[in-house]
Specification:
- It is a single chain.
- It contains ten helices and 13 strands.
- It is of the alpha/beta class and about 450 residues long.
- The strands form three sheets. The chain has a six-stranded mixed beta sheet with strand order 5-6-7-3-8-9, sandwiched between helices.
- A hairpin with a 2-residue loop joins strand 8 and strand 9.
- The longest helix has 16 residues.
């Protein structure tokens, strides 16, 4: 078990970690979350004895790391995947670590097989990709078969198969009763991997609880309600009725309503009482990312600003309308609604409409015609024709464009005469290597 008590670290006038206390218990994957610069890496370095705390202390199994007997066989860590001598082969790197800790050489081949690097064991690590470096770092952490493992961003650079492998590896290690402490910025991956969360911001503890409790404490579930898009007056009537009944209604960009404070059956009854037809009434539970953003929004040090595009944006085409602002957008506590589900939506109406009518929107309502985005089709393929939007990436074929239907073909235009140019500058003479003999040919 890892236990930190009043952990504080200062660098001059900069306080990286302040009065941080937590426990990382065995048998579970504990996620370590926080914005950039919040002190996660500094905390991990103090756990491993790489940095001395200004105040407080941290122990592993009741002992500071530096006082653990044969620490590499009790604690494994991955803090920097590139902390490897580039000219050394992967197997030789692990073999050096094994010899320093009294680990038999056969264990090196075992961990190379575990991380999938047995085929490149004799290659120098300077040619490794980021994902291969991560696998080598994980192999080094597993080398001593330790009971305590620390990983800082272990899935950076891994492909989907590698991410799934790391996720299953973490869960398997925790199931064996080991202590697994993982730092990551990938909220979706933490939601699938971690059982417990420790969240810090600006060096201070913000949360120490399970994933389920964290989401429940830092988010509010809401109902997504949609009325017929062709009848906006029904949406307004329902919004007023829900507000009168104690609900909080926030319009979303696609025309739906986000309702909080009322259960789904009550929303359905209110809509029925006011003779409002519903196209969608679905519950939405916040994700770990939404809960994390809500908690840490006041502890972010590096914020992006709105991109100033004055003078760079193209003018809107004739008849186009600028996007309508959404009430509440940009204010604290407001988060963009989830994108509408595509395909298999339980509330989607079947497509309808007469020929010539605008195509149906994602919920069955007539939508505005949009320029189709189609891939180029080979000649002779079913449905291929000369009409449609041209592919902007297609190479010119030299064929004259076809005129619209009902219009006489125009003769090809004569090529424009080249503009007069000044006397052509002589081409630079090819340079040759004076140290090499001239080719006899």
């Amino acid at each position: 078990m890892i236990e930190a008590v009043g952990l504080t670290k200062r660098y001059g006038d900069k306080t990286a970690v302040y009065n941080l206390s937590f426990q990382v218990r065995p048998g579970a994957v504990t996620g370590f979350l926080g914005p950039n610069g919040s002190g996660k890496s500094t905390t991990m370095r103090m756990i491993l004895g790489l940095d001395n705390p200004t105040a407080g202390h941290v122990t592993i199994g009741g002992y500071p790391y530096r006082k653990l007997p044969n620490a590499p066989r009790q604690v494994g860590a991955l803090l920097d995947a590139k902390a490897v001598h580039g000219g050394r082969a992967a197997r030789n790197h692990l073999l050096c670590l094994a010899q320093l800790s009294g680990i038999p050489a056969r264990r090196v081949d075992e961990v190379l097989g575990v991380v999938g690097l047995q085929d490149v064991a004799k290659k120098r690590s300077k040619g490794f990709s980021l994902g291969m470096g991560q696998r080598l770092g994980i192999a080094a952490a597993l080398l001593g078969d330790p009971q305590v493992l620390l990983f800082d961003e272990p899935v950076n650079g891994l492909d989907p198969e590698g991410i799934l492998w790391v996720r299953n590896l973490m869960k398997a290690l925790a199931a064996e009763g080991r202590t697994v402490f993982v730092s990551s910025h990938l909220m979706s991956e933490m939601a699938l991997t971690a059982d417990h969360l420790i969240v810090i911001g600006r060096g201070q503890l913000l949360a120490d609880m399970s994933v389920t409790a964290f989401i429940s404490a830092n988010s509010a579930d809401f109902a997504r309600v949609r009325t017929p898009d062709t009848e906006p007056q029904q949406r307004e009537k329902l919004s007023a009725a829900l507000t009168e009944s104690g609900g909080h209604v926030l319009p979303e960009q696609d025309g739906a309503l986000r309702v909080t404070g009322l259960p789904l059956p009550r929303i359905s009854d209110i809509a029925h009482d006011h003779d409002v037809r519903l196209w969608e009434l679905s519950p939405h539970q916040a994700s770990l990312e939404e809960a994390y953003m809500r908690m840490t929004q006041g502890a972010v040090d590096y914020r992006s600003t709105i991109d100033q595009k004055e003078g760079l944006q193209q003018p809107l085409p004739p008849g186009a309308q600028p996007p309508m602002p959404v009430p509440g957008q940009g204010q604290p506590g407001w988060y963009a609604p989830p994108p509408p589900q595509q395909g298999g939506h339980p509330f989607t109406m079947p497509p309808q409409g007469a020929p010539g009518q605008a195509p149906a929107g994602p919920y069955g309502a007539p939508g505005a015609p949009a320029a189709p985005v189609t891939a180029p089709m080979p000649p002779g393929a079913p449905g291929a024709s000369g009409a449609g939007t041209p592919n902007p990436y297609a190479q010119p074929t030299g064929q004259a464009p076809q005129p619209p239907a009902g219009q006489a073909p125009q003769p090809p235009a004569a090529p424009a005469a080249p503009a007069p140019q000044a006397a052509a500058a002589p081409a630079p003479a090819p340079t040759s290597d004076l140290t090499k003999p001239e080719d006899p040919r």
